[in-house]
Design brief:
By secondary structure, the chain is α+β, with helices and mostly antiparallel strands. The protein has a single domain, classed as Arc Repressor Mutant, subunit A, CATH 1.10.10. A three-stranded antiparallel beta sheet has the order 2-3-4. A hairpin with a 2-residue loop joins strand 2 and strand 3. Helix 2 crosses helix 3. The longest helix is centred in the C-terminal third of the chain and has 17 residues. The protein starts with 16 loop residues before the first strand and ends with a strand.
């Protein structure tokens, strides 16, 4: 019986990424939201809200290149979770960043 091929997301093979420069986090009406700066922000059609964990990760990684392992490490250092849970949560967070086009591949 042939083995099943799984679709492995890019971040599973240590792809380095970074946040897009045009996005910044601002606190608006008690919510932490991602906004576009300058000329990029003239056509905003949605608001991306960050929960406490997402904000922690954003602040820790802003201006830095990072991969799945970096995100997992931050989660393990700041929350009482096991590595499997941290990895699952990091994968979900990175998938959402990519879906919202908030990251680009690193150098």
């Amino acid at each position: 019986m042939p083995s099943e091929k799984k679709n492995i997301p890019l971040w599973h093979i240590n792809v380095v990424m970074k946040f897009r420069k045009e996005y910044k986090v601002r606190s608006i009406a008690g919510e932490n939201v991602v906004i576009m700066q300058g000329k990029y922000g003239s056509d905003v059609t949605r608001v991306i809200s960050l929960n406490e964990t997402s904000l922690l990760l954003w602040n820790e990684l802003q201006g830095e290149e990072f991969d799945l392992g970096t995100v997992v490490k931050i989660l393990l250092e700041n929350y009482e979770v096991d590595e499997a849970t941290a990895t699952k949560d990091a994968e979900s967070w990175i998938a959402k960043l990519k879906e919202c086009n908030l990251v680009v591949d690193g150098d």
